[in-house]
Amino acid sequence: MAGPGKRVHGPLAGVRVVELAGIGPGPFAAMLLADLGADVVRVDRPGGSGLAIDPAFDVTNRNKRSVILDLKTADGAARALDLVERADVLVEGYRPGVAERLGVGPGPCHARNPALVYARMTGWGQDGPLARRAGHDIAYIAITGTLGMFGGPDEPPVVPANLFGDYAGGALYLVVGVLAALHHARVHGEGQVVDAAIVDGTAHLSAMIHGMLAAGAWQDRRGANLLDGGCPFYGTYATSDGGHMAVGPLEQRFYDEFAALLGLGEVADARKDPGRWGELRAAVAARFKERTRAEWTALFEGSDACVAPVLSLREAPAHPHLAARGTFTDHGGIVQPAPAPRFSRTPTEVRGGPARPGAHTAEVAGDWDVPGLAPATPPAPPEDQETTYR
Fold first, then answer.
1. Beta carbons of 168 and 94 less than 8 angstroms apart
2. What is the pLDDT of residue 260?
3. CB count, 10 Å around CB of 370?
4. How far is it, in rounded angstroms, from Cα 190 to Cα 72?
5. 3-class secondary structure, 358
C-alpha cells in the first residue's frame, strides 16, 4: 500500500493517518483521505466494529491497512500511541470521554506528537446538553431544521438515507477540518483538535436557505419553495412504465425548451403565476405518464431542458456520461464510486480493496517502524456501541 518503495498516487501521498475504528462518517472520512493518497492505518478492535456487513464488501475501508489492537489494555493503548507518534492525523469517532478513558485522548497523543491533527467525529459534538447521548443521522438532522425540509407539504418528512447527515454534514466537514488543520501544522508546527459534529456541519449546509428565509424568499414549511418540490418545474414525475424523470429548468430559456419538448402548449405560461402551479403540475404529470422513462430520456437527450432519468444504484454506473468519465469503477468485483475529486498532477485511484481487520499488522510494523505491534488476536464478540460516534 504505502510502504518503502511503493508508489502511491494522490495529493496526500506521504501523509500518515491513524484511524481508530468506528462506524459511519469516521470510516468514510478516513476512506476519502486514503483515496487522496494518505497512508491510512485503521486500528481495529478484537471482534470488529459491530457493523453488519462482511468486511470484504465494506468499501469505506478501501485503500487502507488494518492492525488489531485492544485499546482497553495498557499494551494496546501504548502501541496505538507508537503509531500516533509517527502520524500526521488521528481520526476517532467515539463518544466524548471514551478516547480519554482508553488513554488515547488528545492529551497523551499531543504529548507524543505535538504537531498531530486530532480529528474527532461525533453526532452532537464534544460539548453541549446532548453530547453524551446516543444518536443517529436522523436525529442529528432533525434538530437542525434540515430534515423538516424534505418531503411533501401534507406528509411526514422524508428520510434522505444517511447521506445528508453522516456523510455530507459529518464526514466531509471532518475532512475539511483535517486538511485545514494539517496545513496549519505544516506551517506552524503545532497540532490541534478538530471537533466535527454532524449537527454543526448539517446546519452549515443550510446557509443559503437561512439567507433566503431571512430575505422572505423561503417559506419555513415543506413543499412550498422553489427548490423543495413546491415548484412544478423542479421535481420528479412518474412515467408510464413506473419510472421517474427529474425536472429542473428553473431559468426561463431552459424552461421554454422543456415546455416545447414536453408539449405543454398554453399551460406553459402558468410558470409565471404560482396560483396556477397546481394546474401546471397536473399537466406536466399527465404528459410524463404518456411515455416510458426510456422514451422521455431519448426525447430530452442533447437538450438544455434540464431533465434526467431517475436511475437506481445498479443502473447509475452504466449511464453513458458516468461511464465515459469513469465515475464508477470495478475493483475486486465490487462496483463502487471512483475517488473524487480529480487532480491533474496527482491522480487518485482505488489502490486496494477493503482492508481486512488485522491483515497488515506485520507490514505496518515494518513501514512505520513500530516493531512492538501485537499480532492479530482471535475474534471476540463485538463490543457495545458506546465506543462509536453514535
1. no
2. 98
3. 19
4. 28
5. coil
The region, left, alpha or beta by phi > 0 then psi within -120 to 50, assigned to residue 242 is left
Q: How far apart are the first and last CA of the chain?
A: 30
Nearest to residue 117, comparing CAs of 44, 58, 29?
A: 29
What is the reported pLDDT for 185? 98
pLDDT at 199: 98
Strand order in the sheet with 89-92: 64-68, 39-44, 16-20, 89-92, 117-122, 192-197
**What stretches of the chain show up as alpha helix (H) in DSSP?**
25-35, 74-85, 98-102, 106-112, 137-143, 172-188, 198-205, 207-214, 252-262, 277-288, 293-300, 320-325, 361-367
Please tell me the predicted confidence (pLDDT) of residue 373: 87
**Residue with the larger pLDDT of the pair 236 and 1:** 236
Contact in structure between 382 and 49 (CB atoms under 8 Å): yes
pLDDT digits (tens, 9 = 90+) for 204-225: 999 999 999 999 999 999 999 9
Catalytic residues: 136, 166
Closest CA to 281 of 305, 289, 240, 301: 289
Among all chains, which residue has been given the C-alpha cell 492525523? 89
CA 337, CA 239: separation in Å to the nearest integer? 28
3-state secondary structure 176-193: HHHHHHHHHHHHHCCCEE
What pLDDT is recorded for position 53? Answer: 83
Distance CA(227)–CA(149), nearest Å, equals 10
Alpha helices by DSSP H, listed for 206-319, are 207-214, 252-262, 277-288, 293-300
Mean pLDDT of all residues in the chain?
Answer: 93
The single residue listed with the C-alpha cell 444504484 is: 313
pLDDT digits (tens, 9 = 90+) for 125-178: 999 999 999 999 999 999 999 999 999 998 999 999 999 999 999 999 999 999
pTM attached to this predicted model: 0.92
Residue with cell 488489531: 68
334 φ, ψ (degrees, to nearest 5): -110, 115
Q: Residue 114 CA to chain centroid, in angstroms?
A: 29
Question: Coil, strand or helix: which one is 303?
Answer: coil
Mean pLDDT of 363-385: 68
CB 305 within 8 Å of CB 261: yes
Q: How far apart are CA 69 and CA 60, in angstroms?
A: 20
